[in-house]
Structures are given as C-alpha cells and as structure tokens.
Specification:
There is one protein chain. The protein is mostly helical. It is built from 14 helices and no strands. The longest helix is centred in the N-terminal third of the chain and has 37 residues, at 84-120. The protein starts with a helix and ends in a 9-residue tail after the last helix.
Length: 310
C-alpha cells in the first residue's frame, strides 16, 4: 500500500491535476457537494422525510434575508412547508444515486455488448450494432413512458406507495437502458483496434479462451475512453432524471430530487415563490458543470496528443 501511495504521488496524473486550477476547483466543489449529499441526515437542518418537521402553514416562506422570511428556513420553504435547503440536500443525494446507478448500468451493458461485438465480428457484430441503432432511435422519454406503463400494469395504479418506493430503481433502469449504446460503440471501436495487436494473437496461440482474452487482456486497454464517457454520462443521467421528473415521469413529490423540486416550484414561480425553482436549478447547474469540466479535463489528459511528458 505504501508503494502504491508513493507511485500515485509521483504519477503524471497527479502532477497535471495539481497544476490545473480549473480541475482542482471543480474537484473540490464536487467533493464538497458529494460529502454534503452523503451526510444528508447530519448536514441538513431538517429531516424532510419526518412529518413532524413539516407544517403546511410554513408553505412558501421566502428566504431568511427577505422581509417575510424566517430564520428557521435559510432558503425558504417549498409548497409543502419543507425547508428548501434540506430538501435540496436530500434531493441532491437522490439525483447522485440515480446518476451513478444509471451510469454503472450503462457501462455494464455497453462494455459487455461492445466487447462481444468488437471481438466476435461478423454477424454478431452486425446484430448487436443494429440493436444499438434501434435503441438510439428511442429517446429517454419514450423508454420512460414504456417502462412506466409496464410498471403500472404490473403493480396496478392503486399501489402508489410501492411505486414511490421503487421510483429510484425504475429511473436507474430507464436511464441505463436508454443510454447504453454510446458506451457500446466506444468500447467496440477500441476493441477493433486492440484485437489486431500482437499480445492478442499471442494469447490465442497459447490457447486462452475468448472470454479470458476479452476480459483479462483487451478490456483493461479499452478502459480509458470508457472512463471518460462514464464521467460525462453521470452528468447526462442526472440531467435525464431532472427532465423526467420535470415531466412527471421521475421522482414523486414526496421524495425530493433536484428535478422534482424544480418541477413543483415551477408551478408557483409566477405567483412570487421564485426561490422554490431558482435555488434547486442553480444547484443542478453547478453540479452538472463541475462534472462536465472534470470529464473534459480527464478526456484531455488521456489524449496523448495534448498532454506529453517533458
């Protein structure tokens, strides 16, 4: 472990990272936001899932610095009387869970199918890539509608409580199934270049199985583009959750996410309660921005034409 830590401290990655103020700033902001979201029960002033902390009479209370504000609610309250700052912290945790879960599902499906298509070639490659083309013809919204209808049929429209409990897994499934072709195509392109190299031919000559060659030898050499696209896909998945929640196909009102907070607040924005939409919207923009900027830096770092030692 000591050797690994020393190797990391002396690595070219850390050297470039510490000398890029934008990357360092974005990493610090992202670390802070993730830490606050992870520690939501401790960091949030109020527990938004505890009915004792919610009073309808406090609904749409302005931020604390305004004339009608209350010192108990720094950023005001939403239409249910929940502390908006607490709802944003809990909602950010939900959005991050959905974003990371959906990206992991996308990468799992995309890596397996991309490896198989690139290594097998022929009819297998053609079939899997045409399947990816068909998938790309469906938007995330269309996939969400189809799966929502299937869930309604399986659970029944009267099982609202069960549907609310399954909202996060459903969104992870929806976004993961909608976006995997991008990962699959990226992996396939890398595999097509790698499988012609000498180490793959040597592995075939000594009699290694195709699965072993794909996952033990080719896959590690294709992870760089997957890492870059996964970073960007996390931001995309969070945006997809926000869009689906805004359209009423995502998180329910009782379980806050950044998208559901923006949606519910949008209904009151013209009545003067601008803060319900504005503050979650700003937080969503900041979260997406720092993730995308880190993804851009990582893409540039892994591009040998841009970053060269010496």
């Amino acid at each position: 472990m000591t050797v690994s830590w020393k190797a990391f401290k002396d690595s070219w990655f850390l050297y470039r990272f510490l000398r890029d103020p934008v990357a360092m700033g974005c990493a610090l902001v992202l670390f802070f936001l993730c830490a606050v979201a992870l520690l939501a029960p401790v960091a949030a002033p109020h527990d938004v899932y505890d009915a004792i902390n919610i009073d309808v009479l406090d609904a749409r209370t302005p931020p604390a610095w305004t004339a009608e504000g209350s010192s108990n609610f720094l950023l005001g309250t939403d239409q249910q009387g929940r502390d908006l700052l607490s709802a944003m912290i809990y909602g950010m945790r939900t959005s991050l869970i959905i974003g990371l879960g959906a990206t992991m599902l996308q990468c799992l499906i995309g890596v397996v199918l991309g490896l198989t298509a690139g290594y097998a070639g022929g009819k297998t490659d053609a079939f899997l890539m045409r399947m990816a083309d068909v998938q790309l013809s469906f938007s995330t919204l269309m996939v969400a509608i189809i799966i929502s209808v299937l869930v309604d049929v399986l659970l029944g429209r009267h099982s609202l409580a069960l549907r609310e409990q399954m909202a996060v897994p459903i969104l992870v499934l929806v976004i993961g199934l909608a976006e995997w072709p991008q990962v699959a195509r990226t992996v396939r392109a890398s595999v097509l270049a790698e499988k012609r190299k000498e180490y793959v031919e040597a592995a075939r000559v000594i009699g290694l199985s195709p699965l072993r060659i794909m996952f033990r030898h080719i896959l590690p050499n294709t992870l760089s583009p997957v890492l870059v696209i996964a970073t960007v896909q996390v931001a995309g998945a969070i945006m997809s959750e926000a869009a689906l929640s805004f359209l009423g196909l995502g998180m329910p009102v009782t379980r806050p996410s950044l998208g559901s907070l923006i949606k519910t607040g949008f209904e009151y924005i013209f009545s003067g309660a601008w803060w319900i939409t504005a503050f979650p919207g700003v937080l969503l923009v900041v979260l997406i921005l720092v993730i995308n900027l880190l993804g851009d830096w990582l893409r540039d770092f892994l591009n040998p034409k841009l970053y060269k030692k010496g």
